[in-house]
Design goal:
By secondary structure, the protein is mainly α. The protein is 32% helix and 4% strand. The protein folds into two domains: 85 residues, no CATH class; 38 residues, no CATH class. It has three helices and two strands, in the order H-H-H-E-E. InterPro entries: CHP02328, Pyr-dimer_DNA_glycosylase.
Length: 139
């Protein structure tokens, strides 16, 4: 599993959006700091950044009338199987939340979705280029 580039969140199909929620829950819980090839970069940052990313996922879920468990709104919550953090220093939000979520990563995500038969095109606000998910090249 991967954390989709945040510009894709509003366009993700139901299955990918709900899968992303499950992935965030797992990473915030017992999955924190467990080696994983695709999301290893997440552990280089405060868990608060993952909470911020998860908030984006849950906001999109709510906009589609899904009802994520409200306990995940608490940055200290780590799921039923993990004790909550005693404290977690808030981190100033950045855009993107993870610097790894750059244009190259966006192209990789679009390619991954295309391999699943999901075709999306996204306009990058910073570069104002449309990235085609077939090969990830700006068009």
């Amino acid at each position: 599993m991967r954390l989709w580039h945040e510009t894709l969140i509003s366009d993700l199909p139901r299955q990918q959006l709900l899968g992303q929620h499950r992935e965030c829950c797992a990473l915030r819980g017992k999955g924190w700091n467990r080696p994983h090839a695709t999301v290893q970069y997440v552990f280089d940052y405060s868990p608060y950044k993952l909470y911020q990313y998860h908030q984006l996922i849950m906001e999109e879920m709510k906009s589609r009338t899904y009802q994520p468990d409200e306990r995940w709104e608490d940055p200290l919550y780590r799921g039923k199987a993990c004790a909550p953090y005693r404290e977690l220093e808030p981190v100033t939000p950045t855009k993107p939340i993870y610097p790894e979520h750059n244009a190259t990563y966006l192209a990789e995500c679009l390619e991954n979705l295309a391999d699943k038969g999901i075709k999306l095109s996204v306009r990058m606000k910073q570069s104002e280029k449309i990235v085609d998910n077939k090969r990830g090249y700006p068009i």
